[in-house]
Task: structure prediction
Amino acid sequence: MLDVIKGLLYKSLYAIRPDMKDYIRSCLEGEISDIEREILEIYIRNENVSQSYNVPLCQDTGLVTVYLSHDIAKNITVNELEKEIASYMKTLNMRNSQVTSPLVHENMGDNQIPFIKIISSWQDMVGVQVSGAGSELQGFVLTFTGSSTTKDIIHAIVPEVIRRFPKSCPPVMIGVGMGGTLADAALLSKLALFRKIGQFHSDEVVSQFERDLLSAIREQSDRGAQGIVGGQCGVAHVAAEYVPSHIAGFHVAVSFQCYLTRSWWSHV
Amino acid sequence: MFDAQAGSRMLYTGYLYTMRDGTLKRLINDSFQFTDIFPVYFCGPSFKGTLPLGACGPTTTARMEKFFPWLIENGFRVIIGKGSLSRNAIDAIRGKMVYWLAVGGAGAFYGERVKYYETVAYEELGPEALLKVYVEDMPLFVGVDKWGNKVI
Result:
């Protein structure tokens, strides 16, 4: 299991997820501006250079989170796993991106504390997510009342998404988490990023919400790769996850992931 | 190069200073005096791997907007980073400073363009140290030109 996690972490830092590469290639086959074309071509070349020189795709190797399904977590000691992963991280040429705390901005120098989360809704599955600041810091949460409709949610979310996603190295994947507590909504927005580009939710209502949100963002924004004005390829996909919510209202959290799509998972 | 129009593409060869949040905070606190002026590249390199600076793509420029008045006062005319700027920031730099775009998330690609570097100050800040970097054929786009026109 440790080897699987190591493999996912390596890929998160050194490979673009195949579904995003397919999306980039489909953009390159379409009618796009010269600037957007050159940006997308640089993305593909970046992966070749990264693997040739053993240098991560992006200098912001960010914060690492490992997700374990509950059945896998039963058989491991979290502290031991943290140590093993932290030790492996030292071999991956990651930047020292962590400071001691939000209040004491002191670089920790040697990196890196991986965050480990146990996911009750997953089975026989592990995931690795690398969060760089460009995407991570654009995430947000909005709160709605129990009488809010799907239309209300989309109406409120879209302007925020449009303001934020161009800073997240588009084409982006957008994860939406709804319901539960504030923490649940935020976590669900992260788990949604493990979905494949182009794959909508199995629940028909949620699937329609994802499609409507994606359409609204694309219709109302003219930003493409890297946030270029007049671009065609700004948003690759929207994926939403939910849990039951309180009768009085609910939170909707939104997370972004850049073109590197650094969310890799595997069944174990 | 100050006169290039928004959307123009260029290959830059020459020196850059790297700066980001921590660097700029220290520079201002210390009233740091520059003897040479080069374009400012908002970047925090990874420093590891087989390239001189490791991966070193641009970071989000919008976070540095509050430092723009200080950069202008100190004679800087070109900033390089990624992502859009606020309308206020574009108004503030019009005619005084231009904004070039590097491709965010392409850290290894830009790392290959770095030929050598020296640490000027704040080594203890790690990736936020002030570096003087020599790059060759670094692909860039004019994001905001000197007239305030933009493509980002």
Remarks:
- The mean pLDDT of chain A is 95.
